[in-house]
Amino acid sequence: GSAGVSGRRALSLLRSLLVGGADAVLSHSLDLVPLLLRLLKLCDPSLGPAAPASVLDLVAFSGSPASSAAALHSLAGSVLSLLLDHGRLQVQRTPWERQK
Fold this sequence. Notes:
Layout: H1 2-20, H2 24-29, H3 33-42, H4 52-62, H5 67-84, H6 86-92
């Protein structure tokens, strides 16, 4: 659904800001860790069929449980690993310069 598209866009934007944005993005993004953990649990393809409430949540969020859930899981995992592994984030970061 449209919420799934918006979720993927938001995660992609967050990843781009973490890699190429100001250092303050990291400190503000750390508040999202519990949400990303929940999203990873909800979209985990290795868990097999989820509880009915989770399936309804997932279908409403992603639109198609199979492919969208895997893509959302992968993107959320990528963002979460950048948030939790500062060394990895520093390797991927590009210098950010404030526009004058």
